[in-house]
Design goal:
268 residues, six-stranded parallel beta sheet, 28% helix, Rossmann fold, alpha/beta
Length: 268
Amino acid sequence: MTEVVPQQRKKILVVGAHPERRSLNAALTDFAVEHLRAAGHEVRVSDLYAMKWKATVDADDFPDHTADERLDVLAGQERATLTGRLTADVVAEQEKVRWSDAVILQFPMWWFSVPAILKGWIDRVFTNGFAYGPSVPPPYTGGALGGRRALLSTTVGARQSAFSDRGIHGDLAEVLHPLQHGLFWFTGMTPLAPFALYGTVSTTQPEFAAAVRDYGHRLDGLFTDDPVPYRTLDGGDYDHGMRLLPGRETPGTTGLNLHVHPRGPRQA
């Protein structure tokens, strides 16, 4: 692979969430790190299980909280964030996000979502005052974490057809909408279409090798591929109640696809 020139070098955070180091997820994480570094990028890794990441938000996250005080998580997060009183583990992960030009989340799909440890990373790291809130730019407009690209890479036990437009599990883009739109786009990051490895219960070595090649192509396009063209809140498409105005959608479009702009991708 040809090494990128210095001005193209980027900083990438890869967050992995699988308890088994011999898993497909660990292999995909290792491949991504090696592939991106071989291309000249700087990569940091948060292996959540290896880190023994604390997955729950509670009073221990706020050193200034007293036992006789009612815990208001949103207010507590904002106060601790703005006064520099978050716990050291959360501060370290926020610094990785700030440092990055792109964030990749690598995880197995468990019960149509991320493992609890990754959800806990999101809950604790993307605090009020850091990723959203009155002290940062508004959501869905570029947001607090604007300028970063974001990619979901997931392994799925089911066959791909079950996650298609008429599949019984629902379209994968809609299943992952809370992460793509509700985490990445809400905070200003620019999401790419997710990468998925299906049928992992019976994946053969040739199938995995083919998937790795496909993933390599996706990683090569991390900063050049068209993102998902979600609508911005300040683009004139929504009313004051954050509802899409009538007539803005392509005829026949329903559900979550209403929030994808029909005129194509917004570059970032």
